[in-house]
Write a structure and sequence with these properties.
Layout (H helix, E strand, L loop, with lengths): L2 H4 L13 H49 L1 E4 L4 E5 L4 E6 L3 E9 L2 E6 L7 E8 L2 E6 L7 E6 L1
């Protein structure tokens, strides 16, 4: 092989032949490009899956908040009001106690603005116009069934 052939020139029979080193460099570049395309596709897929999971989670919690929106009557003297946006109040015949609330799955957390009231967490069950709260943290326990007004 002469100098011209080593530099990528024509072979004796007139066929263009690339030096082995250039061929291996091109093949390595192709492999890197394929790997990068694969990683980009994988990353895009994982991002889409994460967004879908987040949207589903937000929709489930949002729909539960929408269903809870309104006034729920416990008995003749106590009712709870939820605005569907994280604010509410516990209303008695003598006073109203404002709170913020958060729904996380099947759990309702009330954070009362009045420091004399204990913040509390309840397990919730919504069934049409019936809201059932089962006492958890910050409560005396018990199950409370309320009807939507």
């Amino acid at each position: 092989m002469n100098e011209n052939e080593r530099r990528g020139g024509k072979h004796q029979n007139g066929v263009h032949e690339q030096p082995r080193n250039q061929r291996s460099v091109r093949m390595a570049r192709r492999r890197r490009r394929r790997r990068m395309r694969f990683l980009c596709c994988l990353l895009t897929f994982l991002l889409v899956v994460a967004l879908v999971v987040l949207l589903i989670h937000m929709t489930v919690n949002k729909s539960k908040a929408d269903q809870m929106s309104g006034t729920w009557v416990l008995d003749d003297s106590v009712s709870y009001q939820f605005d569907g946006h994280g604010n509410g109040s516990m209303n008695t015949k003598n006073a109203a106690y404002a709170f913020t609330y958060e729904i996380n799955g099947e759990q309702l957390t009330l954070d009362f603005q009045n420091a004399s009231l204990t913040d509390s967490t309840y397990a919730i069950k919504l069934d049409g116009d019936t809201l059932t709260l089962t006492g958890g943290d910050g409560t005396i326990g018990g199950t409370y069934e309320m009807r939507k007004q």
